[in-house]
Amino acid sequence: MKKFGRFTIVIIVGLILLIALSLLSLRLGAVPTPFAEIIEGLMTGEGVVLKYRLPRLIIAILVGINMALSGSILQSVTRNPLAAPDIIGVSAGGGLAAVIMLLMFPSVPAIMLPVAAFAGAMIASLLVYVLSYQKGGVKPERLALCGVAISTGLQALITFIIVKFAVDSSQALVWLKGSLYARSWEHVDMLWPWTIIGAVITFASYKQINLLLLNEETVKGLGMRINAVRLVLIGVAVALAASSVAVAGTISFVGLVIPHAARLLIGSDSRLFLPISALLGALLVTGADMVGRIIIPPIEIPAGIITALIGAPYFIYLLVIRKGT
């Protein structure tokens, strides 16, 4: 009961903060918009808020949920606290495909960029899975090592292409840092089905996720088809992260840091931990996007840079606390 009480408090406080951040995100920007004008625009279906800021806000929330849940799944499946979407090649694969599209095929319609990024993320993740597969299934530690190796190689290719096309690489560099600039309702439609389906499957699988935290022999003794469950959950994590990378670029540290923060608040029981993780992810990306828009207007700092500036020190703090305990 004590945990459920804490869970309720964290959810209520988190939702209040998310609502407050959302209202500020709709109001603030290069040109601040009064709340009365926001309400009028929403009622009439016209204005900058409905056309630009609201879809951007929704995408920030969806991306935060996706990346946080993806990282939570991967850390549980691999039993590795350093696991994140980056480690299975999602970000690097999507980034490479996007850079190729932007720099090598600039005449291709812009709508193809998310499609290419999603395909690249899925192909890279599949390659990591195939290389980490051994007789008897995928071992978590081998998955992590293969993911690091593939991601490093793909990042090298990204760097090579950017250097080769240095004069025209500004747009690609912004995309690689994770930006929500110029996102529209079309991008919302691309993303929300993946978030809904992925979140439902993830929340429904909390028992299996809890069991995967146990010793592998114990899990097999309980009758779980561990390799099949692991494959499905990895697939869900990849789909969540790949859809986010396709729409918003490579927003870093959300899938790495947020699961740790959620566990500190509520513990490792996935029934409570997963919703908290999703909420914290939405808060982080929404806040990062808002700060990036208002800190030095009219210049925008990509949300991925803000999340890295927040996430890197916080992760070091977590490591220091863990070392101290």
From TrEMBL:
UniProt entry keywords in alphabetical sequence: Cell membrane, Membrane, Transmembrane, Transmembrane helix, Transport
TM region positions: 54-74, 86-105, 111-131, 143-167, 187-206, 227-260, 272-291, 303-321
InterPro entries listed in its UniProt record: ABC_BtuC-like (IPR037294), ABC_transptr_permease_BtuC (IPR000522)
Major localization class: membrane
Top-level taxon: Bacteria
Keyword hit for Lipid metabolism: no
Subcellular compartments: Cell membrane
Gene3D superfamilies associated with the record: ABC transporter involved in vitamin B12 uptake, BtuC
Alphabetical list of SUPFAM superfamilies matching this protein: ABC transporter involved in vitamin B12 uptake, BtuC
Membrane topology, record value: Multi-pass membrane protein
Entry's family note: Belongs to the binding-protein-dependent transport system permease family. FecCD subfamily.
Protein name (record): Iron chelate uptake ABC transporter family permease subunit
Organism: Bacillus bruguierae
